[in-house]
């Protein structure tokens, strides 16, 4: 517990003492590599726990965060109405690793994910501006939230068109500037290169997913570039053939929703999506969640390295990814088994060739299910809903 918590407290202590040069904020584990939102949140924990000395109090606070996170996740799942109730038992009680990440190790990953799930709840309520604000706040705690960004961009374009989504993107960018302003005024290059370093190398000894490779391959830049290309290709395929189910070109997303053809209605949570119903039986809330969760999952599958605390990046999304597609009674047990194997892989320390390979196989099976389970099915000609698209509500603006 003390290793990461102590390092976090050392990193924010410099800010508490007046240091505004981001390159000078360091801890026992190395320099601070998280955006500014992390500093403010853990600075609050620094003062709340007697300058980081009361670890027991910090664990109680993170236990409360764990319960809040579950509440936000359950609310999302209730809106989608896709996952059988018994699966929630596994989400609550069957993951030692998740409990450790939240309550024992006190990582910043759970903080970022809890804020992210709050943002998704706001998206489901059509509070897109507030949702973008909290999404950006989550990014400011840890950059892994950017794995959801391609899905969010697609949703914003589908809902508002190019011109309509620009103000939402400005909300995201403005919050990053405001939070980082104390550091940008002193050493802007130092802040940007440290807090948003996309080329950072990871240590081979901590990897969960690539233990099956030799270390020299793991560290090779060509391997990293190949993973990036695979990630971009996966996003492109899902965007073209699974997220965008209209027969029109995907470029129609750039148009004002009011000027699109009636067969491609705007995305609203209060109406059943016509294009979604042609792909798989998801209501509008479930469709939003499917796009966001699959966007993140593609990023996880193509990550250069997954450390043990990164499990929380997608643990709470796995039940949805497994059950959002049509499921027969006989298919429930293999899906539960898949969850169990993934949990076993993440609880194998240190990771082995077998655990790493098993994790990739599980990820591959989930991807195949998402691809084929949401494939367009031949349907007889049914006229699109005659009901005219409703005007954009004020709270959706």
From TrEMBL:
Pathway in which this enzyme or protein is active: Protein modification; protein glycosylation
Membrane topology: Multi-pass membrane protein
Any one GO cellular component localisation term in the record: endoplasmic reticulum membrane
Catalytic reactions of this protein: an alpha-D-Man-(1->2)-alpha-D-Man-(1->2)-alpha-D-Man-(1->3)-[alpha-D-Man-(1->6)]-beta-D-Man-(1->4)-beta-D-GlcNAc-(1->4)-alpha-D-GlcNAc-diphospho-di-trans,poly-cis-dolichol + a di-trans,poly-cis-dolichyl beta-D-mannosyl phosphate = an alpha-D-Man-(1->2)-alpha-D-Man-(1->2)-alpha-D-Man-(1->3)-[alpha-D-Man-(1->3)-alpha-D-Man-(1->6)]-beta-D-Man-(1->4)-beta-D-GlcNAc-(1->4)-alpha-D-GlcNAc-diphospho-di-trans,poly-cis-dolichol + a di-trans,poly-cis-dolichyl phosphate + H(+)
The protein's Enzyme Commission number: 2.4.1.258
Catalytic EC class: transferase
Cellular location(s): Endoplasmic reticulum membrane
TM stretches of this protein: 32-48, 60-77, 106-124, 130-157, 169-186, 222-240
Top-rank taxon, per record: Eukaryota
Molecular-function GO terms, alphabetical: dol-P-Man:Man(5)GlcNAc(2)-PP-Dol alpha-1,3-mannosyltransferase activity
Pfam families: ALG3
Keyword line: Endoplasmic reticulum, Glycosyltransferase, Membrane, Transferase, Transmembrane, Transmembrane helix
InterPro entries membership: Glycosyltransferase_ALG3
Function: Dol-P-Man:Man(5)GlcNAc(2)-PP-Dol alpha-1,3-mannosyltransferase that operates in the biosynthetic pathway of dolichol-linked oligosaccharides, the glycan precursors employed in protein asparagine (N)-glycosylation. The assembly of dolichol-linked oligosaccharides begins on the cytosolic side of the endoplasmic reticulum membrane and finishes in its lumen. The sequential addition of sugars to dolichol pyrophosphate produces dolichol-linked oligosaccharides containing fourteen sugars, including two GlcNAcs, nine mannoses and three glucoses.
Name of the protein in question: Dol-P-Man:Man(5)GlcNAc(2)-PP-Dol alpha-1,3-mannosyltransferase
């Amino acid at each position: 517990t003390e290793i990461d918590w102590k390092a976090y407290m050392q990193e924010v202590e410099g800010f508490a003492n007046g240091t505004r040069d981001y390159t000078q904020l360091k801890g026992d584990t190395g320099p601070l590599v998280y955006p500014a939102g992390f500093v403010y949140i853990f600075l609050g924990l620094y003062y709340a726990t007697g300058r980081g000395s009361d670890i027991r109090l910090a664990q109680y606070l993170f236990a409360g965060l764990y319960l809040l996170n579950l509440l936000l996740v359950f609310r999302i799942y209730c809106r989608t109405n896709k996952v059988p109730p018994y699966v929630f038992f596994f989400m609550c009680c069957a993951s030692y690793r998740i409990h450790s990440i939240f309550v024992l190790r006190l990582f910043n990953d759970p903080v970022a994910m809890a804020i992210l799930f709050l943002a998704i709840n706001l998206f489901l309520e059509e509070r897109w501006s507030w949702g973008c604000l909290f999404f950006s706040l989550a990014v400011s705690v840890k950059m892994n939230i950017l794995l959801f960004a391609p899905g969010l961009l697609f949703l914003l374009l589908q809902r508002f068109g190019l011109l309509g989504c620009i103000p939402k993107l400005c909300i995201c960018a403005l919050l990053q500037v405001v939070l980082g302003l104390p550091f940008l005024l002193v050493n802007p290059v130092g802040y940007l290169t440290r807090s948003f370093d996309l080329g950072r190398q990871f240590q081979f000894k901590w990897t969960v997913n690539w233990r099956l490779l030799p270390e020299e391959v793991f560290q090779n830049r060509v391997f990293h570039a190949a993973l990036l290309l695979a990630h971009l290709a996966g996003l492109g395929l899902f965007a073209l053939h699974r997220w965008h189910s209209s027969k029109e070109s995907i470029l129609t997303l750039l148009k004002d929703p009011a000027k699109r053809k009636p067969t491609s209605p705007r995305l609203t949570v209060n109406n059943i999506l016509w294009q979604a119903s042609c792909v798989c039986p998801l209501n509008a809330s479930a469709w939003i969640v499917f796009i966001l969760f699959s966007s993140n999952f593609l990023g996880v599958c193509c990550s250069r390295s997954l450390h043990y605390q990164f499990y929380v990046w997608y643990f709470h999304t796995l039940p949805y990814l497994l059950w959002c597609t049509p499921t027969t009674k006989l298919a429930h047990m293999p899906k539960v088994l898949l969850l169990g194997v993934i949990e076993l892989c993440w609880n194998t320390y240190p990771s082995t060739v077998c655990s790493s390979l098993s994790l990739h196989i599980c990820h591959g099976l989930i991807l195949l299910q998402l691809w084929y389970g949401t494939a367009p099915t031949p349907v007889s000609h049914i006229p699109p809903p005659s009901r005219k698209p409703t005007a954009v509500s004020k709270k959706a603006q």
